[in-house]
Amino acid sequence: MSAIRYFVTFLSVARHGSFAAAADEVCLTQAAVSLQMRSLERDLDMVLFERTPRSVSLSEQGRTILPLAETLVANYRKILAAGERDEVAGVVRVGALVSSLMGAFADAMLNLKRRYPKLELKLFTGLSSDFATRVDSGELDAAIVTQSPAGFPATLKWTALYSEPMVLISSIEDPHTDIDALLREPYIRFDRQTWTGILIEDALQGLGAPVRDIMELNSLEAICEMVKRGFGVSIVPRLANANWNPESGLRVTVLPERIAPRRVGLLERREHGREAFTDAVKRHFTGVADDPTATVSPDAGGAGASSSSD
């Protein structure tokens, strides 16, 4: 059992290139991660890492065993899930956007925990693009991600759960209320390298509004704080549970209907051992599990997705 844990830690170090980052992910101290990796190297009689004072990277031997370790861990998790395939129980590893935990997904998780007391959720926050890789490899059982602008691999299935309209936020102290006038003010841009950032760029093009950037951030919370303080305006998805009212210091301006919303959905492998959990999540939002009309084909990029929350 401990050997499996060591391989889980090994995969985390390989992914992050850092003992410290891996320690955060697997809930250990950095010293414990280092000790585990030394023990694994000794047991295998291999040097798995090239260590420097500032970083750690896989050695040639480490790169050789990486796919074997991925398969080993994935198969072990399948064994654990085999007895619980038809029951919403046990440990389920789910990736989630930080913003989804401020929105409708948080309510869904609370509901599921109340309904299924044997369920143990392990949530990992990050970016949608990173989660796609981690779900495909079997490291995560599922993830809550935005709709990909480029589609997903054929091995994955994305089901639309809910949508968040794009809105223009400004400080409550801002004298302007017209969209065109607001967009002539300093603009705080959401990171264009993220899927949400790409969608916001499409919204700006749809509005035909050239903007004057003053900063680019990858955190909705940080953007909201900058806007409250009067640094500028921004276009962001309207989160379900966000306290964006005049008392919070923000003014929310609705954009025209032609501006596409951000669609958030459940990403899973087409075959996996946690269907009971993923079906329960889908039922929470749509009332129907595994509705074929609610999935996006790998190369569709977004066409054909359906959800009762849209």
TrEMBL record:
Region (Disordered), start-end ranges: 288-310
Transmembrane parts of this sequence: none
Keywords, sorted A to Z: DNA-binding, Transcription, Transcription regulation
InterPro entries: HTH-type_LysR_regulators (IPR050950), LysR_HTH_N (IPR000847), LysR_subst-bd (IPR005119), WH-like_DNA-bd_sf (IPR036388), WH_DNA-bd_sf (IPR036390)
GO MF annotations in UniProt: DNA binding; DNA-binding transcription factor activity
GO cellular-component term (any): cytosol
Pfam families hit by this protein: HTH_1, LysR_substrate
Lineage: superkingdom: Bacteria
Domain HTH lysR-type residue range list: 1-59
Family: Belongs to the LysR transcriptional regulatory family.
PANTHER family named among the record's database cross-references: HTH-TYPE TRANSCRIPTIONAL REGULATOR YBHD
Protein name as it appears in the record: HTH-type transcriptional regulator GltR
The species this protein was found in: Paraburkholderia solisilvae
Lineage: Bacteria, Pseudomonadati, Pseudomonadota, Betaproteobacteria, Burkholderiales
